[in-house]
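Please review the protein record below. Tell me whether the encoded fold seems credible here:
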Amino acid sequence: ANAQRTGYYRSPSLSDAGIVFESEGDLWLVPADGGLAARLTTHPGLESNPVVRPDGSEVAFVGRYEGVADIYSMPVAGGRPRRHTYGVSDAVLSGFLPDGRLLFASGSESTLPDLQLFAMDLQTGARERLPLQQAWQGSVDAAGETLVFTRLRHRQDVKRYQGGRAEQLWRFDLEGGREAVPLTSDFEGTSTQPMVFGQ
């Protein structure tokens, strides 16, 4: 009998290079049409939450190399990870913006017990705080004009939660938008992990 190997495969990120995912505390790359996965990282510290540039050239991820979770990147073809942050709190990577900056959320500059969205240029380290409160998990359209994000972050795993901290999807106009607009306010449950498609 041919036994298949099973495991825990999480946080897939699709690009022209294939699919980067996390498993066993490391990052792996597998062709999009299947095949053998190749290990990208081997450090004893944990790597998680990978997001790959659409052209497949670079992967950004959260690394826990010195006990603290910080943002790193490396070429998908291999190489040494490069550190971009120092002591960010609760970093959650969402993806790359059309202008090449990394979209991520962190609690390091939030005055509330919630996360704040940022855009960061990985080459220069310049970081822009998006003008939204209680925002995380963002996705931007191909034109770079509209951001869809998850508002609030419910930290408890409660099935079918419908209380005042229910996560909802909102839309924000990045080109001069003044107010974010709720997209899922008619749904009593939670809505998370937006992905803009076909725009």
About this structure: The chain has no helices and 16 strands. The mean pLDDT is 83. The longest strand covers residues 46-52. Residues 120 and 138 are 14 Å apart (CA to CA).
